[in-house]
Amino acid sequence: MLKKTKILVAGVGGQGVVFLTNLLVKSALLAGIPVATSEIHGLSQRGGSVTAGITLGENTYGFLETAGVDILFGLEPLEAQRNIAYLHKNSIVIIDNNQILPYVVNAGNAPYPNIEKFVEYLKENIQFVIYNTESPKNMISVLRNLYVLGRACAETQFPIPAKFIEKAIVELAKKGFEEKSLEAFHLGLNIKSKTVNQNK
């Protein structure tokens, strides 16, 4: 039986937080892994902050505690930074450098945080960091979440086998986008990364 694993997905509306959450839940069910999820929090249709929690394994529940998240998907860097309190020293963090500037930054009232410094801080304090700065050619931007998920499967001991994620993608992708969705996932799955940090 898979040990309990807590996953947090964070991003902004339009980045596919809801889809990625549903995909992970569906993949777990296909793999026979007990799974529970929290409510989706945030303004998913308005570009606001969106988060969702997932628990895999025995005695599952969706609620995530401070310092209780094992895997964080930050589909937007600032949103990853907002959720740093959920991490512990053995956490895995996957951050996509897909910056979407908040209103106060666009209005010139505040600077966007230095993401490189944030990533360096994470590398010094937690077990494993993937910082994605890649943007594969010809990949639809809305499918970046699947690319990032593919990288997580390739570069970590991800708790859900890739074959079940592939099945879930085919089932959940919009009609006509199944092939492109699988292609985005496989691009991440097959990448040879130079941006991984694992602290011993």
Task: Report a brief summary of the structure.
This protein has about 200 residues and is an alpha/beta fold. It is about 35% helix and about 20% strand.
Walkthrough of the structure:
- It is a single chain.
- The protein is α/β, with parallel strands linked by helices.
- The protein has one domain: Pyruvate-ferredoxin oxidoreductase, PFOR, domain III (Pyruvate-ferredoxin Oxidoreductase, domain 3), CATH 3.40.920.10.
- It is 35% helix and 22% strand.
- The chain contains seven helices and eight strands.
- Strands 1, 2, 3, 4, 5, 6, 7 and 8 form an eight-stranded mixed β-sheet that branches.
- The protein is globular, with a radius of gyration of 16 Å.
Highlighted features:
200 residues, alpha/beta, Pyruvate-ferredoxin Oxidoreductase, domain 3, 8-stranded mixed beta sheet, 8 strands, 35% helix
Whole-number count of domains: 1
**Helical region count?**
7
Looking at CATH, the homologous superfamily is: Pyruvate-ferredoxin oxidoreductase, PFOR, domain III
SSE class: alpha/beta
Note the overall shape: globular
CATH architectural group: 3-Layer(aba) Sandwich
Kindly estimate the percentage of residues that lie in beta strands according to DSSP.
15-25%
What assembly state would you assign to the polypeptide chains in this entry? single chain
